Amino acid sequence: MQPSKVDNPTRHQDEPRKLFSYPKYWAECYGPAPYLPMSRAEMDELGWDSCDIIIVTADAYVDHPSFGMAVVGRLLEAQGFRVGIIAQPEWDSAEPFKALGQPNLFFGVTGGNMDSLINRYTADLRIRSDDAYTPNAEAGKRPDRSVIVYSQRCREAYYDTPIVIGGIEASLRRIAQYDYWSDKVRRSILIDSNADILLFGNAERALVDLAHDVANGRTITDCWDMRGTARVCDGPPTGWTEIDSTRIDWPAKIDKLPNPYEYQHDKKDSGDEPNGEPDAPAPVKIIPLPLQRQSDYDKTTSYIRLPSFNKVINDPVLYAHASRVLHQEANPYNAKPLIQKHGTKDVWVNPPPIPLDTDEMDWVFGLPFQRRPHPSYGDARIPAYDMIKTSVNIMRGCFGGCTFCSITEHEGRIIQSRSEDSILREIEKIRDQVPGFTGTISDLGGPTANMYKLNCKSPKIQKTCKRLSCVYPNICKHLNTDHSPTTQLYRKARAVDGVKRIAIASGLRYDLALKDPEYIEELVTHHVGGYLKIAPEHSEDQTLSKMMKPSISAYDEFKRLFDLYSRKAGKKQYLIPYFIAAHPGCDEEDMLNLSLWLKEHKFKPDQVQTFYPSPMALATAMYYSERNPLQKLRYKGEKLSVSKDIDQRRLQKAFLRYHDEKNWPMLREALKRLGRTDLIGSGKGSLIPPPTEKAKRDRKQRRRR
Ligand code: SF4
Questions:
Q1: 456 annotated to a ligand binding site
Q2: Architecture of domain 390-631+645-659
Q3: According to the model, what pLDDT value does residue 283 have?
Q4: Which residues hold [4Fe-4S] cluster (predicted)?
Q5: Is 402 annotated as a binding residue?
Q6: Beta bridge partners of 182
């Protein structure tokens, strides 16, 4: 149960406390550990009798700022707490979860840097043979749905110890979500894990607040209104106003209701009303969503009620609507809390965290990371570490809003950048600390290569903005598109002693880069080693509009500049474009056109990807509902073409690999269906060759059988 009256909820503090300004916990006297301990023996060496917080993670412990457990571990350590790590424990009993004893404050449970199911299964649901986050890439070292399994074991180990869940797996499952692997909508992970609180997004602020609050004797229930957190509760806070968004079929003349500002739910109708107990907390007002703008209510004490779990499991259109609302409530400066009923309980989701300032980002990245895996792994190779050990993360967040990607849902749309100094210092650390450093920095990037220090020009406008993307359907006129901070950074990074080359491996938002040709020239001249991978993702506007990606003409323009500056630099360089097959909204005709585009541009892709419905992505809502949540949802609205069947998905993939003869029989059938047999032949204008005599004979035989 949460407090019935809150005068000044934490979430309304738009000027949050700096991460480094909290009084330190008493255990600060122990000082920073060389590595956070993973065993009792290491704790003894540090002189600790117990840990204050134990992080349980599905990844191997690598003490590096690209690994979530290291960031939160070092962050909490810097607040004075003693933090232990249990990495990739066996999960068939609670014993491994007792390895460091009972934590004084709480367990922090994470599925690691990737969702455990994406880590384990391919987009076609085949089991992967390796795991990049495990020593020697060994597969099978984490359970499916790691957060749920680990939380249950922590509970068994120490029943009374609070459990805090976080990381991408928990973050993207904070409300009811479509789960591709079981092909059904699952409850919020809070319910299945029985955790006390969920921290979503980059959770430094909430984590530091929570740890100090719990250390000071507050309960986790007391922290119910903390930004960036979600909890299970008995009902909404008393006295708040509910914006009812549980349905999409409001009567057309809703403004003629007798008292529109104190609308009473029709209980039979929605089933989403607060708990029916007589003493259950209840809002004072319920306002139907369509009347939200005209209504007079205190916005600081209002929340949005989403359709309940029971509703969305049976109603894909309502699911798409819930997804649309969640994405609209993503701006930390104007988002409302969300509530969603799960049986007799509610899941309460606070607004996202306020982004970190540059000095806070610098402070986090400046924590005393060893930049290596824990010594207990010996010489074992951890591929994810090898990949990032010489790369530098310069920013967080992405305002692109590509619907198939969940980065925005996790890290937010507002870019949080480090200072130049902090980045250059990290390059020097890599040079000095990483064994075998050859002089190459493998990346200076983040979720996107070229969003460093780019943000809305007007903080005032940004605070009210509800757009899903700053660059789609067009580049917003309020967006600062001056790439010179990135260009300057590249120049200074190249000048660091001992650095021979800086590569840029993060994905480039090339339509945005077009706004600053000087940046493109800098990139092409100094940071491309022969090939630059970029991701137009498709050639057809119908599909691109579902992805929220720019038209292919932006690619053509980028290629023109890429070629121009490559020639000017005297370098032979090539673009490698990436595409997605079977994205919702993409039909066979679109794939055929993409295939023809590839042929015309002489591309024969080797590695191709099929759409992977990740939890909470907008495209996943499209996949499940066959509706477009980028538009207002209606039951009678247009249905999207969605390839769900494995053969349909294979065919779409085959269009990308039209040059692979294994795909030709399937493609011939498809071309016949599409009435495009003119594309089967040996002429210049054809896509694939006709069948050979032998292939015809084989086919006949197969049919006879
Ligand atoms: S106003 Fe434009 S630039 Fe500013 S946040 Fe909104 S979409 Fe982005």
A1: no
A2: Alpha-Beta Horseshoe (3.80)
A3: 64
A4: 398, 402, 405
A5: yes
A6: none
